[in-house]
């Protein structure tokens, strides 16, 4: 298995508690480099909590999250402050409820994503204040990169419109493009297909596959839409009540009895049978 | 409500009936006003010389109020009708002119950019000349140029605070503290060490920015209301320290005889070596005032230029992104704490510059000048102008600071309300009313739309309803 041999992200014994509620309990899994990995499970299974731990919005109570770059550098995500995870470990994410800068234009959204590169080029504002050529070139390059992504997501004609004016599906794609503008090695998508119609979710599949193939970025996604999960994932991890109940290729997951039980429930006879076994 | 519906039916015949309706509504309002004012306002009751009741009829006052009520009601009604008609027309043409309707705010912005801003700037630059022409002599224009200086000080303070509140979305209720730091920096350095204004000016800005960082460091993890309260407290702390640290600041008595500004080393005084003698002019005390006017104009324009430049740099874009969504900023690798700190300290620095100017202009500083009301006025200049809009803030400063001065000259009110009526007494009442009206009429401020910081093909103004106020 690719994710066993060359993982980009290794999650070990992750545990996250909120007061008395254990949202994630002793969870371990690996995300393969150049894989699309899907994290699925019923509502409240702890998927978004795992995401928030990976991207630094929560500090886990226990566990280790190791991110390995291609050159062998390793980052321990649970020890990095939130913005460093995006800046140094190069993990980008999108949100379940879209978080675009709605009052800024589409282009501005993509330039904010390149903040750290541009900040350095602007000599932490001083060189930029006097408009030195180094900064102007960096800005041109940043606009070029934004243009590349806008063409890719078909929004080039709306580059100067406020992001809040875009239709829902376009906002979803723009958020992915914005995350990709940070040059991530791992892109975490929280329900990217939520609220999309079948055609839009087909476009999303194409976009995600191109992210993986053309940009050498691993994709980790939470998704309820099985047409997306089964079509594009290389690896599926199933969570229920904060623990992992299955882990494998989409075909393996499709036929796993525990997954079916978690999603669809179990037959009454089966329950009786187990009750008899335990002697209840 | 039924009257409205009849009036707004979008037929051609509706036009005269709308006017009739409006007049009828106005008459009703005037009648109500008459009924209300009859028992309350019509007679003024006084005690006569032998303690008897003396009734003074005030028919004129009642008539004026009724006429005002009538006019206001008619205007409101006609405005409502006009707006409904426009909405109906827009809905009817929605498909055909969708593009044009979208471009409308952009067109307004363009017109303002091509006419409004140069006009405003030209007025500001030639103001001393215009004022002295209007007054007949330079000395006669003293009052107006002083008023201009006051307005420009608030324009500069508003632009400084605009970085913090308008761009970064951090609600700062204690901005006057940095103004005070700047003023006392110049006052103390010049009276103690005899340093000149031109050395103290940058020092005052840097010190105020430094205080901005000191305050910001522990405080900027707070958000929204909590941040507002802590900055409010900081403003009060600075003022109380200035009052109580008597050895350093001379307490409530303040620091007086602060050296005046020089024309880059040449003092404005009579006789040899003075400004007038050096340039071969007859001595006039107004030279200093005019110089101060241009000094604050330049300081304000520098503030504006730096802000406009910063908005187009990554740091400015990060400020605005922070105002829009802090969590998204963090997920994009922006160090939110440092970004907020830069906004806070740069804003504070401009407050410090303005403070040093204040000290050199007054020649006297005391803690009384830096109370919460000042912070509130500066903040309302920013909010009224439209958060983030440089031009809006300038207009709002003129209205907010110049408006109350205008009240002093409304002599015709004496003819209506009696000889001992002073409209200036109602300054705060009118201020409050104006605020309420503004917040109903333009909740996003005078200039609500946002100008994008970078453009790929076509510049479009962004409607204020999409822009967030920030909660940090």
Automatic annotation (TrEMBL), chain A:
Domain ABC transporter: 9-266
Keywords attached to this entry: Amino-acid transport, ATP-binding, Nucleotide-binding, Transport
Pfam families: ABC_tran, BCA_ABC_TP_C
GO molecular function, one term: ATP binding
Domain of life from the UniProt record: Bacteria
UniProt cross-references to PANTHER family, sorted A to Z: CONSERVED COMPONENT OF ABC TRANSPORTER FOR NATURAL AMINO ACIDS-RELATED, HIGH-AFFINITY BRANCHED-CHAIN AMINO ACID TRANSPORT ATP-BINDING PROTEIN LIVG
Family statement drawn from the similarity comment of this UniProt entry: Belongs to the ABC transporter superfamily.
Protein name: Branched-chain amino acid transport system ATP-binding protein
Organism for this UniProt entry: Pseudochelatococcus lubricantis
TrEMBL record, chain B:
A Pfam short name: DUF3382
Subcellular location: Cell membrane
UniProt keyword annotations, A-Z: Cell membrane, Membrane, Transmembrane, Transmembrane helix
Bilayer-crossing regions: 26-43, 55-76, 115-135, 147-171, 183-214, 226-246, 289-307, 341-364, 376-403
Keyword Cell membrane: yes
Primary localization: membrane
Membrane protein topology class: Multi-pass membrane protein
Every High-affinity branched-chain amino acid transport system permease LivHM N-terminal domain range: 21-115
Domain of life per record: Bacteria
InterPro entries xref list: ABC_transp_permease (IPR001851), LivHM_N (IPR021807), LivM-like (IPR043428)
Protein name (record): Branched-chain amino acid transport system permease protein
